[in-house]
Amino acid sequence: MIYRYTSAALALLLLQGCASDPAPTEQMRLTEQVVEQARTVAAGETIAELSQAEEKLARAQAAMAAGAYRTARVQAEQAELDARLAEARVLTLRSQAQLTELNRRIGRLRDQLGAMP
Amino acid sequence: MSLLRCATLALAGLTMTGCAGLDAEHSAELDAARASFQSVKEDPQVLRSAPKDVIRAGESLGRAERLADYWGSADDVAHYAYLSQRYSEIAREHGKLALDQERAARLELERQRLQLALREAKLISVQEQNAWLEEQIVNLATAQTDRGLVMTLGDVLFDAGEARLKASANRTVLKLVQFLQLNPRRIVRIEGYSDSSGKREENLALSRARAQTVADALTDLGIDAKRIEVQGFGESFPVAENASAKGRAQNRRVEILFSDEQGRLGATR
């Protein structure tokens, strides 16, 4: 009897631990928002991490529809961070372009001022 | 009884293989996440600009490690290792961005300072400057001769026996550049002269080299080389006696002959 209970409890634990996750509605909403924002910031630029985020979001949405909530949560969480990284990368790329432009302008000004004592 | 026990054990065994067993790939992911976290947490710039992401990288890594050590599934370990890795990368990007922005702010100040200096140099209005510059050019040892407007750069503007211009010549050269920029149709002939001491050919070469130096200085500052003629005359056409040191110094000169407004230069000597 005791063993039967133990094994039943164990099976239950297993089910809880691995199988039945709640629907990650909040995470899905957040990920969709973050991916959309990254898309806006990238403005058509191709960023590898953004493509990854979009693929994972699509997978998460499919998993949600199929009721595979665990997969949905995992994919959505990864997609969120992929998108955040994509956005950060776009911003650093732009800031680097800005630095190059500033240096170019300064160089040009220095050239013109070169003759000043 | 023993059957049940076997079943439980088998179940437990299944759990172990199904969830816990970390294969090489997953432990590599965990190592990568550890390394990334280590590098961002020790970078003060990253810590300052993205403390939250660094903390989250650490939390996710902690989760991945606990799952790996005790009861978690390999997939979960990989997942949290991945998240940790991403948080670290995001933090690193934010750190880079903050650094870039600080740098950009400094460069922008520098750019504004230079632009102001350049504007000052170019003065407020073109007309004003034109009048001012013409006045300056005239003041600067410029003489209206039968050959046209001539400006003389004295020997003191060159290193002795060298074609290189001294820094003290910069102001004169800049004024010349500005004058030519404001009078785009005017062209110049730059003529080099020397005294009569030393060999004739050497004097010719030096006079020509000095004239070319002035021409180069003008083209470097954006004057089209097509607007500049260069000629060396050596010891010909002295303006003073070559007997005295003072006279010789006066003869060592570069003359800049300006064309009229239509770009017509006087005939060469």
Q: Can you describe this structure in just a few lines?
A:
Chain A has helices spanning 2-19, 25-42, 48-66, 69-113. With 117 residues, chain A is an all-alpha fold.
Secondary structure layout plus pairing:
The complex is a heterodimer of chains A (117) and B (269).
Chain A: H1 2-19, H2 25-42, H3 48-66, H4 69-113
Helix pairs in contact in A: 2-3, 2-4, 3-4
Chain B: H1 2-20, H2 24-41, H3 44-49, H4 51-69, H5 74-122, H6 126-139, E1 142-145, E2 148-154, H7 170-182, E3 188-193, H8 200-220, E4 228-232, H9 245-251, E5 253-258
Parallel strand pairs in B: 3-4
Antiparallel strand pairs in B: 1-2, 2-5, 3-5
Question: What does this entry look like structurally?
Answer:
The complex is a heterodimer of chains A (117) and B (269). Chain A is built from 4 helices and no strands. In chain A, helix 2 (25-42) runs parallel beside helix 4. Chain A is rod-shaped and about 85 Å long. Chain A has 117 residues and is mostly helical. Chain B has 269 residues and is an alpha+beta fold. Chain B folds into 2 domains: 2-117, no CATH class; 126-258, 60s Ribosomal Protein L30, Chain: A. In chain B, 62% of the residues lie in helices and 10% in strands. Chain B has a 5-stranded mixed β-sheet with strand order 1-2-5-3-4. In chain B, strand 1 and strand 2 form a beta hairpin. The longest helix of chain B is centred in the middle third of the chain and has 49 residues, at 74-122. Chain B is rod-shaped and about 105 Å long. The chains are: A mainly alpha (117), B alpha+beta (269). The A-B interface holds A 3-4, 6-7, 10-11, 14, 17-18, 74, 77-78, 81-82, 84-85, 88-89, 91-92, 95-96, 98-99, 102-103, 105-106, 109-117 and B 1, 4-5, 7-8, 11-12, 15, 18-19, 71, 73, 75, 79, 82-83, 86-87, 89-90, 93-94, 96-97, 100-101, 103-104, 107-108, 110-111, 114-115, 117-118, 121, 167-168, 170-171, 173-174, 177, 217, 220-222.
